[in-house]
Amino acid sequence: MTTLPAADADPARTPFAVAATEAPVTDAAGARAACAGFGVLDRAVHTRDLVADPEHAVLLRAFYVAMTWQGRGVGRAVCGPPLLDRLAADVAPEATELVLCVNEANDVAARVYGRAGFAFTGHRFVDAGGGPQLVMTRPLLRDAPTTPP
Is the separation of the CB atoms in 68 and 18 below 8 Å? Predict the structure, then answer.
């Protein structure tokens, strides 16, 4: 998989891990057990024709939830306020909008993103490697509540 090495090499991208534990992770086995997924925030939205105001948007790309954690609310919790909003505000202080693309055949992911507050824009992005993608956005909440909904 090239997603994380590409993110590490690009200063506009910020990779993040989704850890499903409240205990400190002290070793590799603990890290593997706690890892529920990962994602990448990309400030270079302007390089794609996705939203009307790309200078004030941050792109969630390559978001994955491990199979063992799917269906347990992890995706909705991470993509909804306050978690993703806080990280996006840190990496893109000028951003007012979160944007993502979801494969049009991935109904499950689209429902998860919808439950996290994202809405379809009506635009499509055709990705040669991943097929047709539907663009979804939601406002970046600066004063997000301290506990997930």
Answer: no
C-alpha distances in Å from residue 55, one per residue of 40, 42, 47, 134: 18, 12, 10, 20
For 96-145, write each residue's pLDDT tens digit. 999 999 999 999 999 999 999 999 999 998 877 778 999 999 999 977 55
**pTM exceeds 0.70:** yes
- HSE (CB half, 13 Å, CA atoms) of 106? 17
pLDDT digits (tens, 9 = 90+) for 36-62: 999 999 998 766 688 999 999 999 988
How far is the C-alpha of 52 from the C-alpha of 114, rounded, in Å?
A: 20
Rounded-to-integer distance, Cα 27 and Cα 72, Å: 25
Which tokens belong to 8? 């590490």
Element (H, E) at 78: helix 74-79
